[in-house]
Write a structure and sequence with these properties.
- With about 450 residues, the protein is mostly helical.
- The chain is built from 16 helices and 2 strands.
- The protein has a domain at about 1-70.
- It has a two-stranded antiparallel sheet with strand order 1-2.
- α13 packs antiparallel against α14.
- The protein is globular.
């Protein structure tokens, strides 16, 4: 049986009978239920996975207008674009992981940016469209369509710039992308102000703020690499600002984005606890940025590391009802989200270890000394373990997928990445070479499956 869980239900109905002067109003089942009864609202949210097609048919039967999918169409377009660019990352990764090709620094940077921006960030924008754009009016849909197109074009140009150019062309492409990211921040901020302000929406909003900070630092890094300096800044200041770019993206942006998407796809509970987790991770990211910019890592590492550890432990407790063993049965694509939550624990653990190695002088990424495998393992825990799993769960809300294929991809991707990470940390080349093709081929299977599933236009039935 093919399944496609609904992401929410919004029905436009004509008020009155034959009264064409009255304005159409948009109602959604969960919002009405929340007003009537919190218990009923909770029940509807839990059952939303199954109810979409039936209630849509009922709406048409009672004379309702078409069910509005808001910006869901744009979300699907963005997901498809993100999946296409992800192929670049995977192919480079497979060849490098098998040690049959030693890619240049240009290709390594292409691998990183095609993954972080081409796959992850485009998919996060898709999640924002789906999360904030339900029951959107015509103006909002048009604006979302323009934003989506701009994101697709500028991200593609940026990835291509890393693959084919050096020098000033990269920061120029980065500046174009920065403009779109600021546009995204304004759009998400505006939508958040009129939204339910759920935990996932708050975390996504804060993650886009962190992404904007990372993008600004990324442009500065590009200018610094191209010119050897940044106009108006001393070499020391320019180097410090540019060097904080990876920190802002990994610690500030990706961890928060992983919380936002996993909470959303698993329909995590609302309340003060989830919001505190989001704010704690956001503050931790800001403190980490300050630490690396002002060379205060020794002094501030316990602060941002401690905040992150407390926040993630709290998040696990907060999400326990969604990730406990009994919750996995029949979970479908949502099980990717459950893996993402667990991977956050591994990611924060590795981050604390990496920071300890860095502050003790045992690891220096700039000179390439020390156990670099641990640093690369942290990167891939975040990229694949957290973000790719969370985003596959999000894509699964939009795409028609076979349960059997979901299970195969879930096991193969995460089994492969586990072997790959153990190989990196233990410096075992054989484990790395075994895990790489398993993970890579499973990711390619997922891309082909979801690409086809996103092209479907109506839910399949049993």
């Amino acid at each position: 049986m093919l399944t496609r869980p609904c992401t929410g239900l919004h029905i436009s109905v004509q008020l009155g009978t034959g009264d064409t002067s009255r304005e159409k109003q948009a109602f959604d089942g969960p919002t009405i239920a929340r007003r009537w009864s919190p218990a009923l609202h909770s029940h509807i949210c839990r059952r939303a996975v199954d109810c979409g097609p039936m209630v849509a048919a009922a709406a048409r039967a009672i004379g309702g207008d078409k069910v509005s999918d808001g910006l869901q169409t744009q979300a699907r377009v963005l997901f498809k674009g993100a999946l296409a660019i992800f192929v670049v990352t995977i192919v480079i990764g497979i060849l490098n992981g098998l040690d049959i090709w030693d890619p240049s620094r240009t290709m390594i940077l292409t691998h990183v940016h095609a993954g972080t921006l081409g796959w992850i960030t485009l998919a996060v924008v898709a999640c924002a469209m789906a999360m904030f754009g339900e029951a959107a009016d015509q103006k909002l849909v048009a604006n979302g369509r323009r934003l989506s197109l701009a994101a697709l074009v500028t991200v593609t140009i940026y990835v291509a710039a890393f693959a084919t150019t050096t020098g000033i062309f990269r920061p120029i492409a980065g500046t174009l992308l920065l403009i779109v990211i600021v546009w995204l921040l304004i759009w998400v901020g505006g939508r958040y102000r009129v939204s339910e302000k759920s935990t996932a929406q708050l975390a996504l909003y804060l993650s886009v703020v962190s992404l904007t900070i990372g993008a600004i630092l990324g442009v500065l890094l590009g200018v610094f690499i191209a010119n050897g300096s940044i106009p108006g800044m001393s070499t020391e200041t320019a180097s410090s600002l540019a060097g904080a770019h990876p920190t802002a993206m990994l610690i500030g942006y990706l961890i928060l984005a992983g919380v936002a998407v996993s909470h959303w796809v698993l329909n995590g509970g609302q309340g003060i606890v989830g919001r505190l987790v989001a704010w704690a991770l956001f503050v931790a990211g800001l403190v980490a940025n300050i630490a690396f910019i002002f060379d205060l890592v020794d002094e501030l590492a316990p602060v941002f590391s401690g905040l992150q550890v407390i926040a993630i432990i709290t998040y696990i407790v907060h999400m326990w009802s969604r990730i406990k063993p009994s919750a996995w049965a029949g979970g479908g694509a949502a099980n990717f989200g459950r893996v993402a939550v667990l991977a956050l624990v591994a990611g924060i653990g590795l981050l604390v270890y990496v920071v300890q190695l860095f502050t003790s002088g045992q690891l220096d990424p700039e000179t390439g000394t020390g156990p670099l495998g641990v640093l690369i393992a942290f990167d891939h825990t975040m990229f694949i373990g957290v973000m790719t799993n969370a985003l596959f769960a999000a894509v699964g809300r939009q795409a028609f997928t076979s349960p059997a294929t979901n299970r195969l991809v879930l096991v193969a991707v995460n089994g492969g990445v586990l072997l790959f990470l153990i190989g990196l940390i233990s410096e075992s080349a054989i484990l790395k070479r075994i895990g790489t093709p398993i993970m890579g081929l499973a990711l390619l299977l997922a891309i082909a499956t979801y690409w086809q599933g996103l092209g479907q236009s109506r839910p399949a039935t049993a």
